[in-house]
Amino acid sequence: RCYEAEIVPTYILTLNWAEAVSEAHRLDANLMPIIAKSREGFVFKIDLQVQIHIPDTLAPRVISIVGTMKNLVSEVLQAAVGNHFRDKLQSMPAIRFIETRQQVQQEAFEHIRNRLEEYQVETKGVYIQDVVLPEALVKVLTEREIANQEIQTYQRQEEAEEQRIAMEQAKGTAD
User: Fold this and answer.
1) Rounded distance, CA 100 to CA 14, Å?
2) Residues near 77 by beta carbon (within 8 Å), at least 6 away in sequence
3) Which pTM does this prediction carry?
4) Tens of pLDDT along 51-107?
5) Cα–Cα 20 to 30 A to 123, which of 74, 79, 93, 112?
């Protein structure tokens, strides 16, 4: 095995945890969207994109640790990414995950970067592409937003009426 050649791409690799597969390298062919459950039991489907880079001077060392690029993606990266998002989502309410998506993305980047540094692999980016929310949660959030908008509308109408009353009083006093 030590004389087998393993081609290691030394450009930035983009790996998709989604239905889409990169045609350039096909290393993400077996990666599927991450399915995780929130603290309340809502099931999410998360499409994710991770960009990694293996410096050419470190490629032999990376392969000596993991064996093949396929192993790096399927055993190391998939475990680090999947476990992080499942653990993170199970520890927080679904609404908070939606509201703090940028923060969750940044924490995922830090976690994955730290895990891959152990293998001499650089992490260039972790991006949450799409979050497929459960239909029940979408309905609740939509109804809540509509209610908030109606409250604001009614408040504005009330202010307008109060101004109209004040104007009518001023007009009556002037007359």
Assistant:
1) 24
2) 15, 50, 52, 112, 116
3) 0.72
4) 999 999 999 999 989 989 999 998 999 989 988 988 888 888 888 888 888 999 999
5) 93
